[in-house]
Amino acid sequence: MHEISIKITINGKTYEKNIKPNLLLIDFLRDEIGLTGSHIGCDTSQCGACMVLHNDSGIKACSILVAQLNDKKITTIEHLQKNDVLHPMQEAFRNNHGLQCGFCTPGMIISAISLVKENNNPNEEEIRKYLEGNLCRCTGYQNIVKSIEEGANKMRELGDI
Amino acid sequence: MYQFNFHSPKNIDDAINIYNSCEDPKFLAGGMTLLASMKQRLIAPSDLIDLRAINNLSEIILNKNTIKIGALCSHYKIASNNIIASKINKMIKLASGIGDPAVRNMGTIGGSLANSDPAADWPAAILALKCNIITNNRSISSNEIFTNMFETCLDESEIITELDIEIPEFFNYVKFPNPASRYAIVGVAIAKYENKVSVAISGASHTPFIAKELSEALTLNFSNNIPLKTIPSDGLNQDIHATSEYRANLIDVLTKDALKAY
Ligand SMILES: Cc1cc2nc3c(=O)[nH]c(=O)nc-3n(C[C@H](O)[C@H](O)[C@H](O)COP(=O)(O)OP(=O)(O)OC[C@H]3O[C@@H](n4cnc5c(N)ncnc54)[C@H](O)[C@@H]3O)c2cc1C
Ligand code: FES
Ligand code: FES
Fold it and tell me: Among all residues of chain B, which has the CA nearest to that of A118?
């Protein structure tokens, strides 16, 4: 099989590499460049633990090849915090106890940001619907929804929409 | 996932030439179905030919009484399109009911039709609508494309480029979703034109199909007073999610539900 050369920007840093075409984005992030914040929670594209941002929209890094992202930009959970200050959505999860074990949390936060970029004032029902692709085995979702309500308000106040 | 070669052609002709020069190639659109099956090693193509770099396959255009939807339009793009919202509004609900937001960002309408999953949503809708599926070399009427479970009449190297949908007087699609995947346990699509109504069913059989008696009854009298139990439960799907009797009953329930929007 032929390796292909790609250029991909992750968290502001550009990587030009020869890769095997069957390299999934999640494996590239976790195994090749050491960004282990995005998790792998299933092999059926259903849990959302692997979600990352592409053009402000959440995508599942377990279900896309690096080869499909030539010249594209990706943001992962590691790049949300700026100068040691948490992103307002991260801060909101912390304030509202929006996590227990934390396994689903990177995907939840990415998904929540993707939601606010689409709809800057989501109500509870819209938040719950948007989380269809993010599974949490611990929290029962109540505090996740509360966190996202607060995070959305803060993002709106800061004009980050 | 097994190894394969990867190509990203810039136009349809190149895509087909590459296809013809490879041993066991597959076209790749959103990958939401194809990559998942490759990860599970259910299939092992020698080559993937990415269609997403080809221009002009993801436009939505209004022409008098038809709408053209490019095959590479994502479910999300369709769900947030103004032409669709104003002309076939309930398609927004269909598109935003597929899977979850991340699946809708990547998955495409062309991929969904080519894949012909009996429980998928677009196939039933397209079957009910007056629609031509345009490929690189012909136009196929929507009532001819789905031939069997995960099978279509497309040739191996044929690429769906767009759908050409005649705008109906009324359209609705209602599904009873599997709570985990959101695929339809049963879904009902109704499209009403001046002199013809079609009701198409997803999730209940090995392919989406037209409910003939329901379509005829609604063509004569477009009301909620539909004939019941016109589809025998024998032969309908039966699995851990629902018995065939349950599915047969859902067809009536969802048809009535879908008509409420009229
Ligand atoms: C978690 C999850 C939930 C889902 N829930 C639903 C749901 O509720 N309802 C639903 O309908 N679907 C659902 N899907 C499927 C989803 O809609 C897929 O996007 C769709 O079935 C395939 O589209 P794709 O663009 O991803 O195609 P791909 O996976 O890229 O391709 C699928 C097949 O179609 C072929 N193909 C793709 N494009 C073309 C083309 N233009 N011409 C010719 N052949 C082509 C490919 O070669 C391949 O064989 C779900 C998927 C996932 C992962
Ligand atoms: S790992 Fe579960 S959706 Fe990606
Ligand atoms: S906090 Fe444990 S899976 Fe969500």
Answer: B80
Is the Cβ of A11 closer than 8 Å to some Cβ of chain B?
Answer: no
Q: Give A4-77's CATH code, choosing from 3.90.1170.40, 3.10.20.30, 2.60.40.2140, 1.10.3660.10.
A: 3.10.20.30
Tens digits of per-residue pLDDT, B155-186?
999 999 999 999 999 999 999 999 888 899 99
- d(CA B197, CA B222) in angstroms, rounded, equals 8
> Are B117 and B198 found together in one domain?
yes
Q: How far is CA A117 from the centre of its chain?
A: 13
Pocket test for ligand 3, best of A139, A141, A144, A148 (most atoms within 8 A of CB): A139
CB within 8 Å of chain A, chain B residues 55-94: 76
**Dihedral of alpha carbons B86, B91, B97, B103, sign:** negative
Is A88-158 assigned to CATH 1.10.150.120?
Answer: yes
Letter for the amino acid at A73?
Answer: K
Cβ contact, residue pair B5, A67, below 8 Å: no
- Is A64 within 8 Å of B31 when comparing Cβ atoms? yes
Percent with pLDDT over 90 in chain B:
98
Domain boundaries, position B130:
60-259
Cα angle for residues B91, B93, B94 (degrees, 5° grid): 60
Q: Does ligand 2 come within 6 angstroms of the Cβ of A40?
A: yes
pLDDT tens-place string over residues B104-137 = 999 999 999 999 999 999 999 999 999 999 999 9
Give the position, in ligand 3's atom list, of the atom nearest the Cα of A100: 1
Rounded CA separation B17/B34 (Å): 21
Q: Are B40 and B99 found together in one domain?
A: no
- What are the sequence ranges of the domains in chain A? 4-77, 88-158
**Best of A17, A132, A137 to mutate (most B CBs within 10 Å, chain B):** A132
Q: Are residues B125 and B23 in the same domain?
A: no
Alpha helix (H) residue ranges in chain A: 25-27, 88-95, 105-118, 124-130, 142-157
Residue among B24, B28, B33 to mutate when testing ligand 1 (max atoms within 8 A of CB): B33
